[in-house]
Amino acid sequence: MCADIPGNRVPRIAPLPEAEWDDTLKAATASIGPLNVLTTLGRHPKLFGSWIRLGTALLMKGLLSDRDRELAIMRTAYLRDCAYEWGHHRRLALAAGLSEAEVAALRLPLDDHGWADDDLMVLTAADELNERSTLTGATWTALSARFGEQELIELVMLIGHYHMVAFALNALRVQDEEEH
């Protein structure tokens, strides 16, 4: 499930040692732990500050339900072959109410699981954005019947954000904290 063979995922950029953390990185790690995604991206303090504000807004202060958010993130992690993202968000997905069977089904074609209509809408959006970089009219219409303008913007931004994060995690070969 990884863009590189897991055993060969030597980081291309090592996490920043704690002695070199700035206040923004210290605050982020105090909130969610010294995750390698934070301590690696923290090597670019100006970019990290902007990224962590957007990530926090999407992950912790958004309008989407936890379930919808984690469905979109987990499907994106699968589609982008991002083991780090998958592993970290798997716990959040389970906490958001997804069952083990639903988490496993996120790796299958959407028709292979009996998704509820609301779940299927979010997953279809993730698939279409991954495949087409846009949404079909039918998907937009279905989403618009369920979500308001701000939620629609947030859903599209969330999926795009986690594509970007997956690209960075995979390209930089950020290791899961449990790998060492």
Automatic annotation (TrEMBL):
Pfam families named among the record's database cross-references: CMD
Name this protein carries in UniProt: Carboxymuconolactone decarboxylase-like domain-containing protein
InterPro entries assigned: AhpD-like (IPR029032), CMD-like (IPR003779)
Protein species of origin: Actinomadura napierensis
Occurrences of domain Carboxymuconolactone decarboxylase-like (ranges): 45-115
